[in-house]
Amino acid sequence: MASLLTFQDVSKVYRNGVHGLNHVTFSVWPGEFVAVIGPSGAGKSTLLRSINRLHNVTGGHILIVGEDISRARGRHLRMLRRQIGMIFQNYNLVYRLSVLQNVLHGRLGYMSSVQGMLGRYCEEDKRKAIGILREIDMGDFLNTRAADLSGGQKQRVGIARAFMQEPQILLCDEPIASLDPSSAKIIMDMIFAMASRRRIACVVNLHQIDVAAAYASRIIGLRKGKIVFDGTPGELTDGVIEQIYGTAISQLNVKERAI
Amino acid sequence: MNIDENEQIVKMPVRPFYRHGGKIDVSVKGESPFIRRFLLGTAVAAIGSLYMLHIDWMQLGARAGSIVTIFGKMVHFNMTDIDFTLISFADTFSIMVLATVYSILSGLLFGLLASENIVRNRAVSMSVKAFFTFLRAVPTPVWVLLMLVCFGFGPIAGIMGLSIHTTAFFTRAFSQAFEDVPQDTIDSLEALGATRLQVIWCGIIPSSVTQLIAWIALRFEINFSECAILGMLGAGGIGFAISTSIQNYQYGQAGIAIFLVFLFAFYLERGFLFVKQSIR
């Protein structure tokens, strides 16, 4: 079985000399649910955003189903990007447009410029979009303006848009960081269920270690742009967590102290 | 206590400042005297201008009465040549509409080229901006005069001259609206494989459309008053009707034309307010 995503010795050095990623190497296989954890500034976002070239890397290769996206340009880049879905912390919808229009944006990568501009989505795509929206309980909001939705609903539209792409890989950049705890659980459950039903590999950046351990089949710990842990949730001991975050475990548990 | 020693330790003394005469100074310490200098400069310029123009206050006072006389003549509307006035007014309206619509189209194009988040090349967007800043710096009447030389008297020169200035205005305003679209929105569309044109049409334009409409409505208003002036330069329209009737001492006819301009401008502004309240 071929890997969906491979990082080969990837480095990212910002112009001010800061290392965003430092010789990162790993692979993601079909069906995996990978959680990336680490302190702020460890390079989680940089890692995720370099997968679909929202950031450029300065060294190494990133292979998407065997093709190097870090060197791809123009049409080739778009062809690779449409296989990678992405869900953002701040949803990043076009808020003036309807829920359905936002979800149909997931098809833009499969359409010509002019078709996409004129909004000429085929009826089959529209039905598919409605199907996905029903699957995530958004069937009642098809023609609602995205701006009028709550945070959790906006994120569901974000999820629907990503799955509309029929991606091979799904990237989630802090998908629940802007949500209340109950919405957060619903959203994580949805991402997990929909991805595993379609056997789409997920790479999810998370702040919450407990959430990562609950959903992920594999956890990658980043610290200062380097992978310091790569294993199953079972292997993520307190000692490992302390190593990733560089602080004592008692300092990390805000919850226990508050109670 | 020795005050010098004290100041070495504490930079801002925790005691009130006293002005001359023992009163406490309540103003911000170390505030730049810019505002005071600006006002002073304005006052000096005003006095200097009065001196330069040799304003004769006595004569001004003596002739002030004629304001009343002339306005009195104007409100006695004279309906002769009303058809000419109405046609001129229709000309003005058409010049305004065409100039604004043409400028919207070209302003959209150049506005996109001037936006740093759309044209990733800073040199390109900066030079487009600089070029249109130059066009904007030259007032509309000057452009119309230049176009009058090129195209001869008539509405074409008016449309062209007004379009140049309006395009420059829209380029600036639209590019600002486009640049206000969050990078996140652009990122999310690029991440799913959208082309540059799709990002513009499906993401940037819908996200900024309320701002675009507000600018367009505002410019309709400005362009109407510009049009009224342009006629006096010979570009046709209501301005021409006003200036010719005043030159022929037909104050009643001028009064009607001015009243029409006022009426239309008033309702244009009301319409603009309505547009602003209706878009969201």
From TrEMBL, chain A:
Molecular functions per Gene Ontology: ABC-type phosphonate transporter activity; ATP binding; ATP hydrolysis activity
Keyword Transferase: no
GO cellular component, one term: membrane
TM region positions: none
Nucleotide-binding is among the record's keywords: yes
Annotated SUPFAM superfamilies: P-loop containing nucleoside triphosphate hydrolases
Pfam families: ABC_tran
Keywords: ATP-binding, Cell membrane, Membrane, Nucleotide-binding, Phosphonate transport, Translocase, Transport
Domain ABC transporter: start-end pairs: 5-249
CDD domains in alphabetical order: ABC_PhnC_transporter
Name recorded for this polypeptide: Phosphonate ABC transporter ATP-binding protein
Organism field: Megasphaera cerevisiae DSM 20462
